[in-house]
Amino acid sequence: MVSLSPAININNLNKWFGEFKVLKDINLTVQEGEKVVICGPSGSGKSTLVRCINRLEMHQSGTINVRGTELTNDPKSIAEIRSDVGMVFQQFNLFPHLSVIQNLTLGPINALGLSEKEAKERAFLLLERVKIPEQANKRPSQLSGGQQQRVAIARSLCMEPKIMLFDEPTSALDPEMISEVLDVIIDLANDGMTMVVVTHEMGFARKAADRMIFMDEGKIVEIGTPNEFFETPKTDRCRIFLKQILQH
Amino acid sequence: MKINTYIFLFFILLLCGCSSPPGTWGWYVINPNTQSGLTNIKFLIGGFSSTIQLSIIAAFMSIILGLIVALPGMSNNIFLRTISRIYVEFIRAIPLLPMLFWVFYGLPVVLKSMGININIDAFWGAILTLAISDSAFTAEIYRAGIQSIQKGQTEAAQTVGLNYYQTMRYVILPQALRRILPPLANQFIYIVKMSAFASVIGMQELTRRANEIVVTEYRPLEIYTLLIFEYLILVLIISQVVRWLERKMGSDESKG
Ligand SMILES: Nc1ncnc2c1ncn2[C@@H]1O[C@H](COP(=O)(O)OP(=O)(O)OP(=O)(O)O)[C@@H](O)[C@H]1O
Ligand SMILES: [Mg+2]
């Protein structure tokens, strides 16, 4: 499927938190179906960049364009973009007072206008996809971290997004649960989903990424294919970062 | 145990009355074995219905008004936030009695000048005052409860396409409720106590009736003692309900 506009187009993006400049002149284009992995030291602005794309943070200058829609203060543009963009958080952010199945159907029923029956059918298909259909009636707190994150992914997919954003989806997980979540994300990648993933899981990056981005102090310092990135990093900062991270 | 202590105190007072020389205590005014005592008791206890009606309707209005004040107070819009803040600070600063006089005697004049001819009777004047005065506090209770819910919940709701109303209705308020309900119920106790002020504008509730009997019988000690116990009973019942509610909420929380 060829689309005229790229999935995400970010141009000269700048963002401040008060006096503090978090994002400095970010330029990034993500094509439909492309998988981009972002890494970089803590505080370098990775989360902020990803959160700007669906307006969880507001940028002060530059433009963000998602599938042909420019992100402005107009609630319509925000709603339009959010309907195309799913997001998975480090802390899962499941709704603790609702069952797993209710977590999944809340958006489809209220935002897409699906009937409860349709929403449930869709939700069960996705729970099967993330391999936990048997947990449908449990509360999130009764699940393991890995299961919770898979529910969160399914909840996002229920909205049939065209782009998925992942902000360190495995950082809050016990080591033995990381692969079950990464498997789901890789499966999604193989399906052709456009993805922006903030992660320090370099094994995953090698497997899934089309492009690697290294951020430091609010700037994109390096950008390239995983091969270039891992074998011949251009900057010292990136080399040091990779060395530190791959030691673990 | 707490209740038993109060009942014990009550009987001590009664015993004092019976054993002291005539003229010091006059429990006869509310002695149910005499014709006049029984009439007095019936009249005094008859105030319960007004006090309870006043309190419940005022509390209900305050719960709604409080939410209407609290929500703009948490918006991103600085104008809405300021209005909400001013309301809370202003209302909180006004003592109940002056506000009651203003609503009962002043508000009809203001309305009339605007061409609205509404007569505010003692009942609705008292309710309106109690509700407005209390809403500043319920608004703060809502605010604290809602702000205790993590920001990630709102963000997750937004990413699955929910609008502001849906996010509040399905995600934030249901979770905030268990933090909001116990203090809200506690606030109800204040309303019950504050409803005594309605007596000064002629509302026939517990305090007003006690005052009227005091004037005719001239037995203030006995009648006001009874009055205090009337409020005590009401408040004890409410606090039992609150405690039950807190326990229930607590056990729900541990279930997750
Ligand atoms: N809401 C906020 N208000 C003020 N400063 C913020 C806010 N959110 C983030 N920051 C600051 O902006 C900088 C970038 O934060 P961000 O969360 O984007 O970094 P990150 O690269 O995702 O780091 P990490 O790897 O720790 O998640 C940090 O210095 C952080 O302290
Ligand atoms: Mg981050």
Structural account:
The complex is a heterodimer of chains A (248) and B (256). In chain A, the strands form 2 sheets. Chain A has a 6-stranded mixed sheet with strand order 6-7-8-3-9-10, sandwiched between helices. Chain A has a 4-stranded antiparallel sheet with strand order 2-1-4-5, with helices on one face. Chain A has 248 residues and is α/β, with parallel strands linked by helices. The model of chain A has no long low-confidence stretch (mean pLDDT 94). Chain A contains 9 helices and 10 strands. In chain A, helix 3 crosses helix 4. In chain B, helix 3 runs antiparallel to helix 8 and helix 4 packs across helix 6. Chain B is flat and about 70 Å long. The model of chain B has no long low-confidence stretch (mean pLDDT 88). Chain B has 10 helices and no strands. The chains are: A alpha/beta (248), B mainly alpha (256). Chains A and B meet through helix 2, strand 6, helix 3 and helix 5 of A and helix 7 and helix 8 of B. Bound molecules: adenosine-5'-triphosphate and magnesium ion. The site of magnesium ion has 4 residues of chain A, from helix 1.
Low-confidence stretches of chain B: none
The total count of helices of chain B amounts to 10
In percent, how helical is the residue content of chain A? 25-40%
- The main sheet of chain A orders its strands as 6-7-8-3-9-10
Radius of gyration of chain B: 23 Å
What is the 3D form of chain A? Answer: globular
Largest interface here, residues on each chain? A-B, 29 and 19 residues
CATH topology heading of chain B: MetI-like fold
Q: Give the total of beta strands of chain B.
A: 0
Structure ligands? adenosine-5'-triphosphate, magnesium ion
H/E series of chain B, N to C? HHHHHHHHHH
Derived from helix and strand composition plus strand pairing, the structural class of chain B reads mainly alpha
Total number of helical segments of chain A?
Answer: 9
Overall average pLDDT of chain A: 94
Please state roughly what percent of the residues of chain A sit in beta strands, choosing from under 5%, 5-15%, 15-25%, 25-35%, 35-45% or over 45%: 15-25%
Output the helix-strand order of chain A: EEEHEEHEHHHEHEHEEHH
Instruction: Estimate the global geometry of chain B from the Cα principal axes.
Output: flat
